[in-house]
Design a protein that fits this description.
The complex is a heterodimer of chains A (about 250) and B (about 400). Chain A is of the alpha+beta class and about 250 residues long. Chain A has helices at about 15-20, 60-65, 90-95, 115-120, 125-130, 140-155, 200-205, 210-245, and strands at about 1-5, 40-45, 45-50, 70, 75-80, 100, 110, 135-140, 175-180. In chain A, about 35% of the residues lie in helices and about 10% in strands. Chain A has a 3-stranded mixed beta sheet. In chain A, strands 2-3 form a two-stranded antiparallel sheet. In chain A, strands 4-5 form a two-stranded antiparallel ribbon. In chain A, a hairpin with a 2-residue loop joins strand 2 and strand 3. The two termini of chain B are about 30 Å apart. Chain B has a single domain (about 40-335), classed as Formate dehydrogenase/DMSO reductase domain (Formate dehydrogenase/DMSO reductase fold). Chain B is mainly alpha-helical and about 400 residues long. Classes of the chains: A alpha+beta (about 250), B mainly alpha (about 400). Chains A and B meet through helix 2, helix 3, strand 6, helix 7 and helix 8 of A and helix 1, helix 3, helix 6 and helix 8 of B.
Amino acid sequence: MLIDLTLCVGCNVCQGACKEENQLPPSEEKYLSLTAYTALSKYNDLYIRRMCQHCDVPTCVSVCPVAALSKADEGPVAYDGEKCIGCRYCLQACPYHVPKYEWSSTKPRIQKCKFCAPRLAKGLPPACAEACPTGATIFGDRDELLLEAARRVSAEPTKYVPRIYGKDDVGGTSMLYLSPVPFEQLGFDSRLGKIPMPMLTMSALSKVPNVLSVGGVMLGGIWWITNRRSEVAAFEASEKKGESPRPED
Amino acid sequence: MKLRLLPRISRWHPIATTLILAGTVAAIARFTYGLGATTNLSDEFPWGLWIGFDFLGIGLAASGFTIVAAVHLFHAKEYEPIVRPAILTAFIGYMLVVLVLILDLGRPDHFWHPLVMWNPHSVMCEISWCLMLYTSVLSLEFAPILLERFNILWPIKWIHAISLPLMIFGVLLSTLHQSSFGSLYLIVPNRLHALWYTPLLPVLFFISCLASGISMILLESLIFSRGGRDLLPTRLRANLAKVIAVILALYFVVRVENLLARGAWHEMTTVTYFSLAFQAEMLIGFVIPFGLLVVERVRNSRRGLYAASLLVVVGFALNRMNTAITGLESYPAQTYFPSLIEIFIMLGITALGFSAFSFIVKHLPIFEPVVATPRVRPEAVTARPEPIFLTRHGGDLESS
């Protein structure tokens, strides 16, 4: 989805449509919550719509120990509450602070934007994109949206900052943003970089097989050498003893 | 050996009992009302005191693999008397951590899921597997002590047969998950404060656990060797102290060098909540004990050694709590202080651990002073092949 902040008028119809689609209580909310999978927050004169970014290489999917989160080829990052053990690593790791936890439940799950996966399966656009009256949110193929975004930026370079947020941030996301002011001023974390976050832990995890194989051989070898050494020492000691006349038992 | 069913009442017993009862009530509340009502955890701060406790428990239990490796893989046989205390410490430490982890999970009834639902990209998945496997290894290493006590000798033979690969596997698993607890935070470069976040986290976690594990076992041997029952001669204790000093120095150099290399040094020189926390952990856990341990007189004195090891353990605790709590308070800016229920559960579980330790020490031959003359072997023990580890009677591969 492409979200052009210059077109957003803050009507909040997207949140209403989202709540209707997901059968959530229809109150207006300013922050993401268990009952708001998308929310509009205001920075000066601009409205920023937040939701799950549905990253191309999602951090949450990589950290989940039981693979309760998964990335579909069509884009959505889906969550399976039946698998979830409640470790909350996804809450800790998500660079956008998206997943929200049912803290008050004794069988808690996480809640977040589902990218209207059931609608996508039927060939329909997500509810928010369909509802948006100004075209601030449009749905489409990611590559085509990128072309469209680049076209808008180059057509009106004074209107936009020359950046498509989400093009390659944390390895690229399904949500793309265009803004008239630098993204840092809108509460976007500028320190995330372009490398997918899961690479950070993979650099450590990829060493596991090495540690096991090299370490195993090394420890076995050390045992062998030190064992041999003490065997030799014991043998030499007994040889020495043998030279002197053996005391009678 | 007579089993004392009614323990002697001392000052410790009422305190421990109260803590365990309070912890039990707190745990019941946690299961009845859920995490939101009973903890101060939130979407912004999803991990708190309990995760810090897990780091602590696992780190202090590191003696389980370091001492086993030193004695049985590197053949430093003179340290044999502390193998059993080390294994017991590790065993209890891991049991407590597993308990806390299950309490901490949102869905404790799903705790077995990592067994069948894998995600090789997840550090958490690797840790769950390492914890499960290493706890099994520890159980097998601990089992012979218990089996001997009840005179069930046939399984010991089997454990003995696989003891060498078992020990190697245990050391490798420990290496992996001790460092992986650091890797957990590799994925939050934007959240964890620059004083703690570094790509070297796993390496630093591993180095520091070596020092804290050995310090813990030194503390135990000093506490339990009162009344003339010396577990280790002064010379060997001083040697262990030297090893700790070297590890502390190594840690300090790697940590400071890394701060400089990442350009995060200025974070430390300005006085903030974070720099003070950082300085506290470095001074208490690394600089001061190193300063103490390089002095020969301190290494040879029981009191000096006690103070230095205690500092290492406290500094280690600060380091882990800072990584798990303080460092994460920087972004998004927030404060977290554990709720009473979180604290009571942690204290209760700690008390449970200490009680289990003192109970086991009372009834099983864990702490045996060094003896000058070879001990007469009980008939039952000599009737089986000598196990590589866990014998107190001089039995070992090369001596048989």
